[in-house]
Specification:
about 290 residues; Cyclin A, domain 1; 3 domains; four-stranded mixed beta sheet; 10 helices; about 45% helix; EC 2.3.1.48; transferase
Length: about 290
């Protein structure tokens, strides 16, 4: 264990001394690490920038067991089965060491391999999906389902003309519904750069293209989260849940969305308690006017 810590610390100190590596064509792009190859890759053009980099992130070795058995203390990044090659195909960048050039001074590896345009598009979409999910604290299983949905839609080419960001946002909305943790269109819209209307359009097109469906949402799907975001006590939440359930059972709100019914029930329950909330406060949380 002591050896592992020493190796890890030494690697970290060496990397701290390295200058910041950037893509010459896209200097503002955030580079992606290819953990297996130890390279830094530009997500915009697939260029490997600089020489091989020591990874101090997800993989480290203890050198405690040289046998061929599986070492549980060795952790690394796995392949991405959703990409065509299972990994990032890359364009080899300009090396700086002597080994990167032949006897005539020409680069040996320039343009050796290139990432396919479809893999690059999917990689960018997966990155956007992860960013959106992180912003609203969604678990990994939601991200995985969203990635799979996006891949199916992308490969079917059934939403040609629609922006990949819009498709990714709609896939995230669908994945949340399918996993039983629905989010409103407004919540998805808030963490993306896509309008609520466009996400809604893509949502309907994806359901049709994949011939799939989602469970109907109910007031109960949102009640706990809305009340929590409004800092309302449990008693108010229970009262609002009762009001919403009775309104639906008695058919008092035909045609109304469950989100609107939940918001109205919360308003009524809060007004009957000491923890009053305004219509605007509730509307901002629920995404309704």
């Amino acid at each position: 264990a002591g050896t592992a810590v020493a190796v890890k610390m030494a690697s970290t100190s060496r990397l701290d001394a390295l200058p910041r590596v950037t893509c010459p064509n896209h200097p503002d792009a955030i580079l992606v690490e290819d953990y297996r190859a130890g390279d830094m890759i530009c997500p915009e053009c697939g260029l490997v920038v600089g020489d091989r980099v020591i990874d101090v992130g997800s993989e480290w070795r203890t050198f405690s067991n040289d046998k061929a058995t599986k070492d549980p203390s060795r952790v690394g990044d796995s392949q991405n089965p959703l990409l065509s090659d299972g990994d990032l195909s890359t364009m080899i960048g300009k090396g700086t060491g002597a080994a990167s050039f032949d006897e005539f001074g020409n680069s040996k590896y320039q343009n050796r391999r290139t990432m396919s345009s479809s893999d690059r598009a999917m990689m960018n979409a997966f990155k956007e999906i992860t960013t959106m999910a992180d912003r609203i604290n969604l678990p990994r299983n939601i991200v995985d389902r969203t990635n799979n949905l996006f891949k199916q839609v992308y490969e079917q080419k059934s939403l040609k003309g629609r922006a990949n960001d819009a498709i990714a946002s709609a896939c995230l909305y669908i994945a949340c519904r399918q996993e039983g943790v629905p989010r409103t269109f407004k919540e998805i819209c808030a963490v993306s750069r896509i309008s609520k209307k466009e996400i809604g359009r893509c949502f309907k097109l994806i359901l049709k293209a994949l011939e799939t469906s989602v469970d109907l949402i109910t007031t109960g799907d949102f009640m706990s989260r809305f009340c929590s975001n409004l800092c309302l006590p449990k008693q108010v939440q229970m009262a609002a849940t009762h009001i919403a359930r009775k309104a639906v059972e008695l058919d008092l709100v035909p045609g109304r969305s469950p989100i609107s019914v939940a918001a109205a029930a919360i308003y009524m329950a809060s007004q009957a308690s000491a923890e009053k909330r305004t219509q605007k406060e509730i509307g901002d949380i629920a995404g309704v006017a």
